[in-house]
Design goal:
two-stranded antiparallel ribbon, mainly alpha, 2 strands, single chain, 2% strand, elongated
Length: 209
């Protein structure tokens, strides 16, 4: 060690170690691609969906589009009203109802009408059963006499037509009504016999006074 002016000088040297500075670069993200995978060799590529394509225009409806309604067959006992079908066509056209739906509406209505016919037929059967129970073996004679009374009093046939329209020809009240008239006429005829033998007395309102 060097000496200065007889004094020993000691120099303590501390070693300085410098660590190397390491700079880490951010990882580079994997490259992405929008490319569609290539189809396997020998296969046809699928066509891409054309989302921008406009929907196919529906077939324009006209009255002729509902022609199938005219060929619908009605169930037994049911009659199709041609005027009602014509009105339905117009209504369906105005509201853009498809011919298929319109046809189903007609079928539903026809099924409802069929049930009504069947229900009324069952009701008429109960009337006949009531008449049979009321008059027993004499039922045929009662019905025959009622028909004669009706023919004599209803010269125009309008009342008979009304009964037929209502389906009430054999209603218990109808038979009772006509039978009572016939019995009344027979009673008056026995009290005031016709002066001319073999001549049928014409019935009139005077016979009920």
């Amino acid at each position: 060690m060097p000496e200065e002016n007889g004094t020993q000088v000691t120099t303590d040297t501390t070693a300085t170690t410098t660590e190397p500075t390491t700079t880490t670069e951010p990882a580079t993200p994997a490259a992405t691609t929008d490319a569609e995978p290539k189809p396997a060799e020998g296969t046809e590529p699928k066509a891409a969906d054309d989302k921008g394509a406009e929907p196919k225009a529906a077939e324009e409806l006209t009255l002729e589009s509902y022609g199938t309604l005219d060929s619908i067959q009605a169930p037994e006992g049911v009659k199709i009203d041609a005027a009602a079908v014509s009105s339905l066509k117009q209504l369906a056209l105005e509201n853009k109802i498809s011919p298929e739906v319109a046809s189903k509406l007609v079928q539903v209505q026809l099924e409802s009408a069929k049930r009504q016919v069947e229900d009324f037929a069952a009701l008429q059967k109960t009337w006949e059963e009531q008449n049979a129970q009321t008059y027993g073996e004499n039922l045929k004679n009662v019905e025959t006499n009622c028909s004669r009374v009706l023919a004599e009093l209803d010269k125009s046939g309008k009342f008979k037509e009304l009964l037929a329209l209502a389906g009430a020809e054999k209603h218990p009240a109808t038979l009772e009504f006509l039978k009572n008239i016939g019995d009344n006429l027979l009673e008056k005829a026995s009290v005031n016999p016709n002066e001319t033998a073999g001549k049928t007395k014409e019935l009139s309102l005077e016979d009920f006074n």
